[in-house]
Amino acid sequence: MVTEKKANNNWVIWLSVFVFFCIAVYTLRSVLLPFVAGIVIGYLLDPWADKFEKIGINRTIATILVMLLVVIILIPALIMLFSIIDNQLGHFIKAVPNYLNSLSVKLEPLFAELQDNFPGLQPEKIREYLRSNMTNGLKILGNIFRSLISGGFAFVNIMSLILITPVVAFYMLRDWDKFIANMDNLLPKHSKKTIKTQAREIDRILASFIRGQLSVCVLLGTFYGIGLYLVGLDLGVLVGFLAGIISFIPYVGSIFGFVVSVTIACAQFDTLLPIIKVISVFAIGQFIEGNFLTPKLVGDSVGLHPVWIMFALLAGGVLLGFLGLMIAVPVAAIIGVLVRHAIINYKKSTLYKG
Known about the structure:
The chain has 354 residues and is mainly alpha-helical. The protein is built from 14 helices and no strands. Helix content is 88%, strand content 0%.
């Protein structure tokens, strides 16, 4: 009786802590983004710092070396990428009217068939509506993208990311092992072994999925961007890179990139061969991802179902915006591990066995 009452009290305490944590995250969601981004960067870079430590380098110096390597590699790559995208956007905005005229000519047989089969639809009005609205819409969309790249997002948010995130990432990377040790000392002794077992499983899943999937997204985005650029597709670098980056959402990245690229190709090119080349880029990319990148970098033992990942990302985005997208997969992994262990304990209990 006493043991059961104690267990109930523990559940109440843990549930209260969880509810308080959720309320705090939701309340402070507008200022948490640079801190969460810094923690994520520290977690992702920790294996690199550990490797430097293993060869006898001080942890602080190892952290500085890792951060310098990231800056040396990342900053020139981003400058080059944004420069190419900005040039492509400028060309695309100027070419929008020609593309729409080309699409209109190619859609003429469809409009003629509509007029024959459905006279009441008035295809001419549909044609004029599409021509006028698509021209304005695409120009506005292109200008928005270009202003985002050249001018930036909301000034306060971008400045906080630039100034705060690297500082948080540095301290998290330097003190990661101390942070883990302090958390280990705070664990309740009677359930310490169980919590550490679950934490190791969560870490394995996060390491496999986040680090592996991030590598897949970058490599896939690079492949799509270069492939579409070599084919000669306008906005090929932007569309290809976006398709790769959002590939962490199952099927969404490839479908988005394929549909947008083929649509632009149909408007831009007058022959079938370039369109086939665009389709080939995505076909080869999917083959490489499915047979080489994902099996090698992510693996089959992640344990996160694609439907569960999509639900977590949508729920996180609705509740917390971009911050929710960042923490959606880690939270989904934690919940998945806890649910699996809860099911194991349930099957051992008298409630299940009767």
